[in-house]
Amino acid sequence: MNLNELLRMLDLSGKPPRPPDQTLPITPLGVTPREAGTATEANSPTALAVDEWGLRRGRDLIAESERLKKAGIDEFAASDFFAVAFEPDPTLLPACSDSRRHEFLALLLGTPDYHALHADTQLDDTASSIAATHFAEQFAQLKKEESREPSRVRASAAGSAGTTGSSNEGEELRREMAALRAVGKAVAEAEKEVTELKESAAALGMGPGEPGSNDPTAIAALFKRVRGDRSLKKICDLAGRFRRVAQSKQRMRSAHGSDEVVGIEPGGDLGRVLPSELVKLALPELELDTLRRFAERQLLCREVRSVEPVGKGPIIVVTDESGSMEGSRVHAAKALALALAWIARRQRRWVGLLAYSGESGERLLALPPGRWDELALCVWLAAFIGKGSELDVPLRELPRMYREIGAPTGKTDVVMITDCRCRIPVLVRETFNAWKKSVTAHVLTLVIGDNPGDLEHVSDEVFRVGVLDPLSDPVGRILSI
Question: In degrees rounded to 5, what are phi and psi of residue 104?
Answer without folding.
Answer: -60, -45
